[in-house]
Each structure stands twice: as structure tokens, then as C-alpha cells.
Amino acid sequence: MRIGVITFPGSLDDRDAQRAIRLAGGEPVALWHGEHDLKGVDAIVLPGGFSYGDYLRCGAIAARSPIMAEVIDAANGGMPVLGICNGFQILVEAHLLPGGLVRNALGTFVCRDQNMRVENTSTAFTNQYEAGQEITIPLKNGEGGFLADTETLNRIEGEGLVVFRYLDVDPNGSLNGIAGITNERGNVVGLMPHPEHAVEPGFGPDMPEAMRSGTDGLAMFTSVLQGALAR
Ligand SMILES: NC(=O)CC[C@H](N)C(=O)O
Fold this sequence. Notes:
The chain has 231 residues and is α/β, with parallel strands linked by helices. The chain has five helices and eleven strands; from the N terminus they run E-H-E-E-H-E-H-E-E-E-E-H-E-E-E-H.
């Protein structure tokens, strides 16, 4: 399976996402924000970082990049699209996911190993987790507070569109501790924590070996490959 990773000016984690895809058994394909070409990929990852220097709002300018016209069409056609942190912000700004992301409640950048619960295992990127599984993934953002109006929030909760929920602490002041969401179809997923930084023992969260391996993020990438096999 060929999975495209889009690089925007200021992207930071594009190569980590490519590496995670390779470790999961997929073939990463580098895509460039300024082109209209998805190079025939089967799925897309919008990586973390500081696209366009976070000017205006995080993700707002990247959401209007040339390649996003193709991403929006592909997502609406059912292609799996994952947005990690800045990528989540871009998906929200592109209206592929509901709600908005605002400055962390503390007002500062937050960087920590974050516990969260997998709430929805029927998306393209979470089918290899168990329902209710608790995982630990690095988190690092300045604008990660998830907001939505009451009607939208009720719809997100009512339709089971929450994919990940923070455990122990809500690091950025997200409504209902929401860490990640999906669209109705389950092919578009966005989350603030970084699964691509938790794919190899010894390089992910600093966990006692007996508890967890530090590779809790890998299943997001094997999930999309598994979905392709099932289709
Ligand atoms: N790690 C990231 O992708 C950071 C996203 C964004 N620049 C923020 O600070 O919120």
C-alpha cells in the first residue's frame, strides 16, 4: 500500500511519518503541498509541524495549499486520510473534520507522554486497537484545545465520532477531553498526540518495559494497511 505524506513549508514530522509507515509495512510516498498530484497513493498522512509558521491560525494557510483541493476530493471519495497534530489542525481548517483547535488552556506549549483511551475502533486508522484500550503517545502542541459548539459536540459524541480521549489529565483544555475525532464515514481521522513518535521500542515514550512497549502508535499505521487488505 502506498501512503502519501504531504510536506508543507514548516512541516516537521513528515520524515517520522514516512518511517512509521515503512515500519508498519507500507510504502511511503513524499507529496509536496504546491502540486496538484497525489501520485496515485492509496491513503494520505498530513504530518505534524508548524506549517506556514503557524501564522493566522495553526493549519489555516496550509488548508488552502494547492494539494488540499485533491486531498478534499479524495477524502470525500473515501480515501483514508490521517491528520497528526498540525495535520489535524489542517483537516479542521479544511472542514474535513468538525470543530476547531485553539490555544492550550494553560497558554503555553505542552510536551509530554500522554495517556489516552481508544474510543472508536471502526475507523481506517484504529481497527487494530481493542475498544477501550489505553495507550501512551507523545504530545507536543501549542494549539491543541478542541472546541465545538454545543450542537456539534452533541453530534460528535452522539454518533461516536470521538476516536481518542485523554486520560489522567486534559493537557490542552479540550472539551470532554477529546484528543482525536473522525468523520461519519470513518476514513478521515485527526488527533493531537503523535503516533509516529511511538513506533519503535526505545524511541517512544519512556515507559517501564513491563507496562507497555512504547510502540502504541504503530497500530494506527498497521490499521490502514489492514483495511486495504480487507477491501
Ligand atoms: N506538533 C505539532 O504538530 C504542533 C502543531 C502546532 N504548530 C501547534 O503548536 O499547535
